[in-house]
Specification:
This protein is mainly alpha-helical. It has 3 helices and no strands. Helices cover about 75% and strands about 0% of the residues. Helix 1 packs antiparallel against helix 2.
Amino acid sequence: MPLKKDERKQKYRSIMSLMLKGENKNAFDELACMCGEDAGLFVLADYDKAISENQLRQQAKAGGK
């Protein structure tokens, strides 16, 4: 069921607060849950694996310059 506008705003504030505190993994989990609640879009992703793969891509990109 879609979230109400105020509920969505509050969840985004909570997620941004986690990011500012450096709690990126918790923010990722909260965002994934919020998307599921709000739009019915569920993401099955491993945060640690995604970050690792992104770092490898960044290193490969930097090495190619």
